[in-house]
Amino acid sequence: GQNIDQPTEMTATEGAIVQINCTYQTSGFNGLFWYQQHAGEAPTFLSYNVLDGLEEKGRFSSFLSRSKGYSYLLLKELQMKDSASYLCAVRDNDYKLSFGAGTTVTVRA
Amino acid sequence: ETGVTQTPRHLVMGMTNKKSLKCEQHLGHNAMYWYKQSAKKPLELMFVYSLEERVENNSVPSRFSPECPNSSHLFLHLHTLQPEDSALYLCASSQAQDSLSGANVLTFGAGSRLTVL
I want to staple B42 with a disulfide (CB 3.0 to 4.6 A). Which of A2, A71, A99, B96 is the partner? Predict the structure, then answer.
């Protein structure tokens, strides 16, 4: 089966940086996704990595190392609206998407 | 309307009831999905329809019955559910997944919060 691990909760201060790690063991690899989900809302797509390295999108960046089965999502200049759950998901060789349990980030003033 | 719309947003039902969840997408996608989201657990893939054919059925109990009448609509029919079926049921859509598809991001609806008494 697929195994995707990420921390359950993280807390940070407004304006700070937070790094959410995700490790995975899957049957093949065909891309890694990060989604953001605010309470009571739909998960929304943040980033996609299929090659090693860093993808930057404004305040959010995502990094991938396929050899280590590791990714992180970096949130810079944290804002209160960034308080949400962040879901790591990996697509395997059969194009099935498996999700981690999500990391709840709380931003404090 | 745009995106993926799910109705109802909240549903409370008894174990002997029959109800249905509805999902509609206006994105021109040709694949649709049902996921179950329980607190502190990973999203569980339940069913996948690609080009209106069911391509995935992840050992889901028969008390859940999907229906995909066309590429824009997806239903989940519920009957004789158990209290442990209480969860958020998320619908998603995308272009059909294949080797040429690139990112092929899933777009989710806001979910139907189901409580089984």
Answer: A99
